[in-house]
Amino acid sequence: MITRRHLTAAVLAAATAFGAHAADAFPIPGKTITLVLPSASGSAGDQVLRMLADKLKDEWKVPIIVDSKPGAGGAIGSAHVAKSAPDGHTMLLGFSALVQAPAFGVKTPYDPLTDFIPIARLNDVPLVLLTGDMSITSLSDFVTKAKANPAQFNFGSYGAATTGHVYSSLINMKHGLDLAHVPFRGTPPLTNALLGGHVKSGVSNLDSLPHVKAGKLRVLAITGTKRSALLPDVPTFSELGYDITAGGRYWLLLPAGVAPQTVDKVRDAVLRVIRMPDVRQKMQEIGLEPASGEREDVAGDMRKEIDYWKRVVQVTGIKAAE
């Protein structure tokens, strides 16, 4: 005979089983996964997300799209993900702007440390000082010529209140220069301006690596505590006496509130992709240094980045409104 107690126990057991299954129901069959790029299409970050999408859609058997939501230094795309449904189907490519916002005094509708769940560090993004003037042979040569003829020299970057803006300001300060800062809306237009001779120099990532290899652009210095395997003959800024070490980083993030089982599924799959030899090779070809593909303290990494940028930005006095 089925008593009320037996019926209640059965219902509770079924509910518990259903809840466990629902929490672990990732991906939802037929539901599209969206990888949000909080910047313009065509960048290295765009290419990284498309590599992930190509690999993960085969494993998860669901549609995966890359959705570019540029604007406000990455805040528009980041805010979209922060308030998205916490079911694991919306992910964010986090990059330097996410952790730099507090240093620049940017007010955002999210907290980079509490409104996202870090999944993995995808790669490091070396930053370089580039010039299209091939008569300039080194950073010291650049400084010497800029002092002699400052009106003919300037610094381009991929946006105001960005890493490139900060680092060009540090170079100015070190040498008593006052070279104009020319911001562009992303790295592709900055690269085009360098190739066309519209700006004398620019701090950027290595989206431009093919142009460097073709002899159309020259790298004068690169970030990092040691020389990059991508450009072993190029000195680091720190080698040359500059307090410039941090490049960029790409992280994959989920919105806060995603079930732990889903977080683990996503993390394990993404780390497998990072370890794939063909993916690592493609990352290097576009000027990126792949992460290890092992579990890391990504949240701790982001906290260190926030502290670094607060210190460096304070030295320059740059604010987001500039």
From TrEMBL:
The keyword Nucleotide-binding does not apply. The keyword Transcription regulation does not apply. This is Tripartite tricarboxylate transporter substrate binding protein. It comes from Ramlibacter albus. Residues 1-22 form the signal peptide. Transmembrane segments: none annotated. Keywords: Signal. Pfam families: TctC. Belongs to the UPF0065 (bug) family. It comes from the Bacteria.
